[in-house]
Amino acid sequence: MGVGGSLEYLSDLIGSGGHKHKKKKQLQTVELKVRMDCDGCELKVKKALSSLSGVKSVEINRKQQKVSVTGYVEPNKVLKKAKSTGKRAEIWPYVPYNLVAQPYMAPAYDKKAPPGYVRKVENTATTTGTMTRYEDPYTAMFSDENPNACSVM
User: Fold this and answer.
1) Is 32 exposed, middle or buried (0-12, 13-18, 19+ CB in 10 A)?
2) Residue 124: what pLDDT?
């Protein structure tokens, strides 16, 4: 911690009377799925979310029904404000399909998902219980970790 950091720390202590102050919120992006049909709906949602304190930007993709709010905000407050507009809103439930082990299984696949996305599931291996890992026998045969491996190389 340099001289500037030390002075800042001391000024914070003196200014707050020695009491610790609230932790500052971190800059984050909150993604929501909000049902919007027209320009009026889009404007209503954008206006409501922009009025929240700490919001830096609001981006809306009406085709995907996706709203991205960037700023020093809490996800629950953003969701509550979006619901107050009368629109159906939820935290963005989708992830790119290449991040899911089995994207076309029942819990992950969703017909309403935007192209390239599937529903976010925690872990399909624990829910199904039948998923087994298949190892290629040829890679195991020549593996350095296999004590009985062929040493042709």
Assistant:
1) buried
2) 44
| Phi, psi angle pair for 13, to nearest 5° | -65, -45
Is 15 strand, coil or helix? helix
Q: 5 to each of 11, 20, 25, 40, 120, how far by Cα in Å?
A: 10, 17, 20, 48, 42
Distance, CA of 153 to CA of 61 (rounded, Å)? 55
Q: Give mean pLDDT in consecutive 10-residue pieces for the chain, a chain of 153 residues.
A: 64 61 76 91 92 92 91 91 91 81 74 79 54 57 65 58
- State how far the Cα of 80 lies from the Cα of 89, in Å rounded to an integer: 9
For residue 96, the model assigns a pLDDT of 81
For 120, list phi and psi in degrees, rounded to 5: -75, 125
Report the 10 Å Cβ neighbour count for 89.
Answer: 21
